[in-house]
Each structure stands twice: as C-alpha cells, then as structure tokens.
C-alpha cells in the first residue's frame, strides 16, 4: 500500500499485525485525510490476500472457516 492514495512511499507495515488495534486510526495517521467511504474501496482493491494469510494467523483462521462454510 506504500505510495498509494496518499500513503507515504516509505510506509512500513506493522511488524505484528495481530497486536494492533484501531486499524482505521493507524492508516488515518499515515494517510492524513482518510475517509472510509472513499478510501476503503480503493484500498480493498489492492488488498493482497496471500500476503495477509502469510502474516496473520487470525486471517488464516477466517479463510479456513470460510472454506468450511463454502463446502457445507
């Protein structure tokens, strides 16, 4: 997401995404004028599911549970 929608080009993701809270606040501090109604769809379009799964245990759990629901 670095350099996208006003985020700094040198943006560094949190070392442990599982520990953080207030993701909107975190991104708003770095983006400046964050408006979820406008910015969220654009940011979501750049979301890397594979990267999220490698960095987040809770996201992997969500994906696993979602697959179970689809298979049911």
TrEMBL record:
Write out the ranges of the annotated region (Disordered): 1-26
Query: What protein name applies here?
Result: Uncharacterized protein
Question: What organism, scientifically named, is this protein from?
Answer: Candidatus Thiodictyon syntrophicum
* Taxonomic path: Bacteria, Pseudomonadati, Pseudomonadota, Gammaproteobacteria, Chromatiales
């Amino acid at each position: 997401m670095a350099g996208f929608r006003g985020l700094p080009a040198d943006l560094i993701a949190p070392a442990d995404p599982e520990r953080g809270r207030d993701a909107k606040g975190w991104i708003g501090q770095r983006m400046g004028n964050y408006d979820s109604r406008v910015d969220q769809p654009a940011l979501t379009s750049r979301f890397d599911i594979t990267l999220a799964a490698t960095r987040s245990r809770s996201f992997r759990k969500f994906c696993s549970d979602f697959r179970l629901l689809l298979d049911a």
